[in-house]
From TrEMBL:
InterPro entries (alphabetical): 4Fe4S_Fe-S-bd, 4Fe4S_Fe_S_CS, FTHF_cligase-like_sf, Helical_ferredxn, LUD_dom, LutB/LldF, LutB_C, NagB/RpiA_transferase-like
Domain of life: Bacteria
A molecular-function term among this protein's GO annotations: metal ion binding
Keyword NAD assigned: no
Lineage: Bacteria, Bacillati, Actinomycetota, Actinomycetes, Kitasatosporales
Originating organism: Streptomyces griseofuscus
Protein's recorded name: Iron-sulfur cluster-binding protein
Glycosyltransferase found in the keyword field: no
Transmembrane segments: none
Every LUD domain range: 71-287
Domain Lactate utilization protein B C-terminal: 393-483
4Fe-4S ferredoxin-type domain: residues covered: 315-384
PANTHER family, A to Z: LACTATE UTILIZATION PROTEIN B
An example Gene Ontology biological process: lactate metabolic process
Length: 491
């Protein structure tokens, strides 16, 4: 079973530990720089990239605006094609539904396609509690699962591991999960891939239940789409008799024509490929081929709350390409684990606090895990203005304090840590409303400037430890103006 993010410290503390790890920083730097350069050249091949990006943004915004209608259309299409649709308000309900469906089959193990939604709800852990073993079949997810680790990247969950570490994990852990690794396993990519292939093949051939997410759901036909590079997804989607897909409600697109846009932008933004090696699409069930039973679990888990926020809702356009992670200077140094969620990097910094609320220290710290350089916005294929949402969430936290989830509702509670900031703002508002007092204060400050401390005391110490306090001028601007402009007051 993979490790969980429960109980992790806030971002600054977790990031401090990560930046002290030279191996981790080396692994991340090498991987993110390689992917980002490849993506840039894959995107540069398309003369109409800007138009595709704008089309993706518009399609997603239109879909989110009419989400209720498209979800009902999807439900009708899936049902007509022989599938069964389940609605899950939160993680607990989704896990309960999936566990019950697996138990109905009489099976105690499942094979899984890589899926962010199932990680978000902690499905593997919930299934384990019910005596059901879930096998991850994506290579990077397998490494994370065998290493009892946590994912640190959306696309490459084991990006923080190098080849030597992966060989050690396979050598020591594979036997506990099935076919052991070869005794003479080397750390060459071909050997590692072959060891994983042999280990997984027996699971594919034995599995009666497959669990997936989906990259897209087409409302007009009830078709689900999974794009991947290894072929493990295709095996999980076609070999088992029962297929259960857990998908966030925002993954819907109205038509196949809309899908066409994302099948161009997603592979180039994520793996820098012109198209994915495997694009699997399925519509309900068929008597001739594939699973005989298909269940779609539609997951809310904070998405409708996010939809209610006019600025924050753009996070729901995300197609999980991970391009924003690969260009982010903060992610490159802090790594994915510091974000305390399955959604790391810039998208995690705006999505997690909206899905989970900001009641916990770590969730409230995420909107500050950014330098606001804007590189994430530049590369995003659906033009999510991540810096805008980050600033908006910071404002929400400062103004109203952390949001707290009560059932399916998120409410703001009074801030505690920002009382000093609010008091300072009130004092400034008073001073600007009383020009005489402001002038006296400015003169006093100018005359006493040699006595001013270079660092702030108390809680302000951390702020001033890495910044120089602005130097106070010898003469306030208004006095200088009066002296040099014949006694006229400065407006
Ligand atoms: S926010 Fe944009 S760039 Fe980042 S993962 Fe989502 S779609 Fe990709």
């Amino acid at each position: 079973m993979s490790g969980t993010f429960v109980g992790m410290p806030a971002f600054p503390e977790a990031a401090r530990t990560a930046v002290d790890d030279p191996t981790l920083r080396g692994n991340l730097r090498h991987a993110t720089h390689t992917i980002r350069a490849k993506r840039a050249s894959a995107v540069a091949e398309l003369a109409d990239w800007a138009e595709l990006r704008e089309a993706g943004r518009r399609i997603k915004d239109h879909t989110l605006r009419h989400l209720d209608r498209f979800l009902e259309q999807l439900e009708a299409s899936v049902t007509a094609a022989g599938g069964t649709v389940h609605w899950a308000e939160d993680a607990e309900e989704a896990n309960r539904i999936v566990a019950a469906l697996v138990k109905e089959t009489g099976e105690s193990e499942v094979v899984k396609v890589k899926s962010m939604a199932t990680q978000e709800i902690g499905l593997n852990e919930a299934l384990q509690a019910e005596g059901i073993r879930a096998y991850e079949t994506d290579l990077a997810e397998l490494i994370v699962q065998l290493g009892k680790d946590r994912p640190s990247h959306i696309l490459v969950p084991a990006i923080h591991r190098n080849r030597g570490e992966i060989r050690d994990i396979f050598t020591h852990e594979m036997a506990a999960w099935g076919r052991p690794a070869p005794e003479d396993l080397t750390d060459t990519p071909a050997d590692l891939a072959e060891a994983a292939r042999l280990h997984l093949r027996e699971k594919f051939l034995r599995a009666k239940v497959g669990i997936s997410g989906a990259n897209f759901m087409v409302a007009e036909t009830g078709t689900l789409v999974v794009v991947e590079s290894e072929g493990n997804g295709r095996m999980c989607l076609t070999l088992p008799q029962t297929l259960i897909s857990v998908v966030g409600i925002e993954k819907i697109v109205p038509t196949w024509r809309d899908l066409e846009v994302f099948l161009q932008t997603l592979p180039r933004s994520s793996t820098a490929e012109r198209m994915n090696p495997y694009t699997s699409m399925w519509t309900g069930t068929s008597d001739e081929d594939g699973p005989r039973a298909f269940h779609l679990v539609l997951l809310d888990n904070g998405r409708t709350d996010t939809l209610a926020d006019q600025i924050g809702r753009q996070a729901l356009r995300c197609i999980r390409c991970s391009a924003c992670l690969n260009v982010c200077p903060v992610y490159e140094r802090a790594g994915g684990h510091a974000y305390g969620s399955v959604y790391p990097g810039p998208i995690g910094a705006i999505l997690t606090p909206q899905l989970r609320g900001t009641a916990s220290e770590i969730d409230a710290s995420l909107p500050y895990a950014s330098s606001l350089c804007g590189a994430c916005y530049e590369v995003c294929p659906v033009a999510i203005d991540i810096p805008e949402v980050l600033v908006h969430l910071r404002e929400r936290i400062v103004q109203g304090g952390p949001a707290v989830r009560h059932g399916n509702k998120v409410v703001l509670r009074p801030a505690r840590g920002h009382a000093a900031e609010r008091a300072a703002m009130r004092a400034a508002a008073w001073a600007f409303g009383h020009p005489g007092a402001l002038r006296t204060g400015q003169r006093l400050a100018a005359r006493s400037r040699r006595l001013h401390p270079r660092t702030l005391p108390g809680p302000g110490r951390a702020w001033s430890a890495t910044r120089d306090l602005p130097a106070m001028p010898a003469e306030p601007f208004r006095d200088w103006w009066q002296r040099t402009h014949g006694g006229k007051d400065a407006k």
